[in-house]
Amino acid sequence: MARICRVEANQAPADCRFIVRAISGQGSGRTQRWSYLDASRRLLSQRTEQQPSFDPRSRDWYGIAAGDERPHLGKAYVFNSLNAPGITASHAFSKGVFGVDMTLADIKSFLNETSPSKEWGILLLEDGSRLLAASDRAAAWLPADVPVLGDVGGLPVVTADQAWKDAGGKVWLRQRSDWEWGTDTRLSLVVMAPLAEFMNFVDSMRSTLILLALMVLLVALPIALWVSSHLSRPLSTIARDAEKVSNMDFSGQLAYESRIVEIDHLSSAYSRMKYALNANRMLIEAQRDSYARFVPERMLELFDKSRITDVGPRNCKVLELTVMFSDIRSYTAISESLSCSDVFELLNSYFEMTNPIIKSNGGIIDKYIGDAIMSLFPSSPDGALRSAISINRALSEFNADRRIRDEAEILTGTGIHFGTVELGTVGDSTRLQATVIGDAVNVSSRLESATKMFGVRMLMSETAHERLKDPGEFHLRQIDTVRVKGKEQTIGLYEVFDLDEPSVMVKKMKIGSIFADALQGYMAGEFPKALDLFAYCAAECPEDTVVSAYMKRCATLIRIPPGKDWAGVSTL
Question: Among residues 80, 113, 222, 330, which is most buried (max CB within 10 A)?
Answer without folding.
Answer: 330
